[in-house]
Write a structure and sequence with these properties.
The complex is a heterodimer of chains A (about 270) and B (about 375). Chain A is about 30% helix and about 30% strand. Chain A is an alpha/beta fold and about 270 residues long. In chain A, helix 2 (about 40-50) runs parallel beside helix 3. Chain B has 11 helices and 5 strands, in the order αααααααααβαββαββ. The model of chain B is unreliable at about 315-320 and about 365-368 (pLDDT under 50). The chains are: A alpha/beta (about 270), B alpha+beta (about 375).
Chain lengths: ~270, ~375
C-alpha cells in the first residue's frame, strides 16, 4: 500500500531513526517531510496533506496534542484544498500521555524507544484505517476526529461546581468593579487576561478562561472557540462563509466571532 | 497491654497518628506500673499495692489522654499544619500544662474514690508531701512530653531527608529523559556504534553519580569542582546528542579551582532547569554557560547562564520548575558558615542566570 507521511519529532536522531524503521516496515510509505516542532507540524501538514502523521507529544512550543487540535481546527474540509484528515500516530517517551493521546483520536501510539515489532503492528493498523476510508467522503475522517476530541474535552466540563458564579469582579484603576453575570455577553481570552464584554463596556480580569468556564452555567454560556465563551441567549445568528468557516453575531454588538469546528456541532436548525 | 491501632476507640483520631498514640500509651502504662511498684515498695503506710496501682494508672492515663490524643485533636481543631511535628507554640504549651493539671486532678479523684481517702486533705495536713507528689507528677509528665516531642521531631526530620532524596532521584531519573536517551542510544547503535558507546558511557556515569548522591545526604563525601563539572559534562553531552544543534554549551573551570570542594550535584538541578525550562521550550534552542571563578572578595562564584525563554521573575514558578532552585537554595543555606547565597536573574525572552556565591575554601582539599 502506498501512502504519504509527515514526521514531527524534535530530536533529530529519533526522527531519522523513525524514518529508517518506517522504510523497512512500510516500503510504500513516502515521508514527505520531517519537522522539529508543533507549529511546523501544523503548517507542513496543511501544505503537504499527508495521509499519516507521526506526532511526538513533547515538542518545543506547540505540543503534539495541541498541534492535533489546531490541525483539526484549520483542516480544509471543502473547496479545492479539501483532503481527508490524516491518520495520527502519537509518539512519546513516557506513557503518561499514551491513554490520553489514544482517546484524542490517534489511530495508534508508539512508545520510545520504538521497537520494530511494535512499529509493524502500528503500520498494520494505519493501513487498515486508510483502506477502510471511502475516498468520496472527505469529511468523515475529520468528523471522526472532532467527535473524539469532543469526548476528550468533555470530562473537564462535567466537573463543574454546584454554585455558579454570580458576579464578576474586575479591577479598574484603583477600583474593583462588580458586574452581575446576567449582564455579561462574552468572555474572551486575550493574552494573560480575559476580556469581559457587556452591552456597554469592556473589563479585564486575570482569571484564565479555563478556570472560569467550569464556574459558568453551561446552559447559559456556550463555548464557541478555544478562547471564546458567549451568552447563548445573546447570539443573533451563525453563518457559514465560502470556505466553510462559521462565524457568529451577537445582539447588541457589531463584531463577529469565529466558531471553531470543535464547537460547531451545537448550531443546528431545529 | 495497649490498644490495637485499629480499635474502634481510636476511630476519631487521624489514621496516620493512631499507631504512634497506642505506642506511647504502652510506654506510659509500663512506666506507670514501675511508679506504682516504687510507691508501694517505698512503704507509704496508707497505700496497699492495689491502691498504688489505681492512683498511678488513673493519673498517668488521664494525663496521657489529655496530652496525647487530646493534643492531636486540638491540633486538628486549630487546623495547624504538619501532622507529626509538634509546633511548639505558646498555645500548645499552655494546653499541655493544663492537660497535666487536669489529668492529675481527674486521676487523683478516681484514686480517692477507690480508696475512700481524700488526697486534698493531705494539702491541709502536710502540704509539702502534697506538693512533692504534684511536682514529681509534673516532672515525670514533662519528661514524657519532652521525649515524645524529640521522637516526633526526629521522625519528622528523617522523613524530610528521605523525601528530599526521593525527590532528587525522581527529577534525575525522570522517565521522559531516560527513555528519550535510550531511544537515541538505540538509534545510534544502528548508525554510529562508536558514538553509541560514548553515549552509553556518559549515561553510565550519570546514573552512577545520581544514585550515589541519592544515598548520601549530600553534605558528606568529598566532591570537587572537577568532579562536579565532569558530571555536568556527562549530562550536557547526553542532552547534546538528543537536542542536536539546538543545544550548545561551555564549561569553564579554572585550573586553580579544580580541587575546590562542593556539595555533590549542587549545580546539576540548575543545568537541568536551564534545559527543561529555558532551552527545551525554545524552538531554535540556545546556549548554556557554566562558569566557576574566584571573585576579588575571597568568594567562589558559580554561574549557570542560559539563553532560553527565561521567565517572569515575579510570577511563581510552575510546579516542578521551582524545585531545583529551592533545593539549591536550601543546600547552600545549610552549608557550614552559612554565608553562601543564591541569586536568580531572569526576564521573559531574555534567558536566565543563577549565581551561587560560596566562601572560598583556602585549604586545598586532598584528592579523593
Amino acid at each position: 500500500m502506498n501512502a504519504t507521511a509527515l514526521i514531527a519529532e524534535d530530536e533529530p536522531l529519533l526522527a531519522a531513526a523513525l524514518q529508517a524503521e518506517l522504510s523497512r516496515a512500510w516500503p510504500g510509505l513516502r515521508v514527505l517531510a520531517t519537522v522539529g516542532h508543533g507549529a511546523a507540524a501544523v503548517e507542513q501538514a496543511l501544505a503537504l496533506k499527508p495521509q499519516v502523521l507521526f506526532l511526538d507529544i513533547r515538542m518545543p512550543g506547540v505540543s503534539g496534542l495541541e498541534a492535533a487540535l489546531q490541525l483539526a481546527e484549520e483542516w480544509p474540509e471543502a473547496g479545492p484544498d479539501a483532503a481527508p484528515f490524516p491518520a495520527i500516530v502519537f509518539v512519546t517517551a513516557y506513557d503518561q500521555y499514551a491513554v490520553q493521546a489514544f482517546e484524542a483520536q490517534a489511530v495508534d501510539y508508539l512508545l520510545k524507544p520504538v521497537q520494530s515489532e511494535r512499529l509493524a503492528r502500528t503500520v498494520q493498523r494505519v493501513q487498515q484505517v486508510l483502506a477502510q476510508r471511502n475516498p468520496a467522503d472527505v469529511a468523515a475522517p475529520l468528523e471522526h476526529t472532532l467527535t473524539q476530541l469532543r469526548a476528550l474535552l468533555a470530562p473537564a466540563v462535567a466537573a463543574s461546581p454546584s454554585e455558579p458564579l454570580r458576579v464578576i469582579q474586575a479591577s479598574v484603576g484603583q477600583q474593583i468593579r462588580l458586574v452581575p453575570i446576567d449582564e455579561v455577553l462574552v468572555f474572551e481570552a486575550a493574552d494573560k487576561y480575559v476580556r469581559v464584554l457587556t452591552a456597554s463596556e469592556e473589563l479585564l480580569i486575570r482569571t484564565p478562561l479555563k478556570d472560569l468556564t467550569p464556574q459558568l452555567d453551561a446552559s447559559l454560556f456556550w463555548q464557541i472557540h478555544r478562547g471564546t465563551v458567549v451568552r447563548a441567549t445573546a447570539i443573533h445568528s451563525v453563518s457559514r462563509d465560502e470556505a466553510g468557516k462559521l462565524s457568529l453575531r451577537l445582539r447588541g454588538r457589531t463584531e463577529s466571532w469565529p466558531v471553531s469546528r470543535l464547537y460547531a456541532g451545537q448550531f443546528k436548525a431545529m | 497491654m495497649t490498644l490495637h491501632p485499629e480499635s474502634p476507640l481510636l476511630r476519631w483520631l487521624p489514621a496516620d497518628s493512631r499507631r504512634g498514640v497506642t505506642q506511647r500509651m504502652g510506654i506510659v502504662w509500663a512506666v506507670a506500673l514501675l511508679i506504682a511498684l516504687f510507691q508501694w515498695g517505698s512503704g507509704h503506710k496508707n497505700h496497699s499495692l492495689d491502691a498504688s496501682l489505681v492512683y498511678s494508672y488513673a493519673i498517668s492515663t488521664a494525663i496521657w489522654f489529655l496530652t496525647d490524643p487530646g493534643r492531636i485533636a486540638l491540633h486538628r481543631l486549630l487546623g495547624t499544619k504538619g501532622p507529626h511535628y509538634w509546633a511548639l507554640s505558646l498555645r500548645m504549651m499552655a494546653y499541655l500544662l493544663a492537660g497535666v493539671v487536669v489529668g492529675y486532678t481527674l486521676g487523683t479523684l478516681v484514686g480517692d474514690a477507690y480508696t475512700g481517702h481524700s488526697t486534698w486533705e493531705l494539702l491541709a495536713i502536710s502540704p509539702w508531701r502534697f506538693f512533692g507528689f504534684w511536682l514529681s507528677t509534673l516532672g515525670i509528665s514533662v519528661g514524657f512530653l519532652f521525649s515524645f516531642y524529640q521522637r516526633a521531631r526526629n521522625q519528622d526530620l528523617q522523613r524530610q531527608a528521605t523525601e528530599a532524596r526521593l525527590k532528587l532521584l525522581e527529577t534525575q531519573l525522570e522517565p521522559h529523559m531516560l527513555f528519550n536517551t535510550l531511544a537515541n542510544l538505540r538509534a545510534l547503535i544502528a548508525t554510529d556504534p562508536p558514538r553509541a558507546i560514548r553515549m552509553l558511557d556518559r549515561l553510565n556515569d550519570y546514573l552512577r553519580a545520581t544514585l550515589r548522591a541519592s544515598r548520601t545526604d549530600g553534605s558528606t563525601g568529598s566532591h570537587t569542582l572537577a568532579d562536579e563539572f565532569a558530571r555536568l559534562r556527562d549530562y550536557l553531552e547526553l542532552m547534546a546528542v538528543r537536542m542536536g544543534p539546538r543545544l550548545s554549551y561551555t564549561l569553564d573551570l579554572p585550573e586553580a579551582l579544580q580541587r575546590h570542594p562542593v556539595p555533590p550535584l549542587l549545580l546539576q538541578p540548575l543545568v537541568e532547569n536551564a534545559i527543561r525550562h529555558g532551552l527545551e521550550p525554545k524552538l531554535d534552542g540556545g546556549r548554556i554557560d557554566v562558569r566557576a571563578s574566584a571573585d576579588g572578595t575571597g568568594q567562589l562564584l558559580l554561574e549557570v547562564i542560559d539563553t532560553g525563554v527565561g521567565m517572569d521573575a515575579t510570577s511563581a514558578p510552575q510546579s516542578g520548575s521551582g524545585f531545583g532552585l529551592s533545593q539549591v537554595r536550601e543546600r547552600v543555606a545549610s552549608l557550614p558558615g552559612g554565608t553562601g547565597r543564591v541569586e536568580l536573574s531572569t526576564r521573559p525572552g531574555q534567558g536566565a542566570a543563577v549565581r551561587i556565591h560560596l566562601p572560598l575554601n583556602t585549604t586545598p582539599q586532598p584528592a579523593a
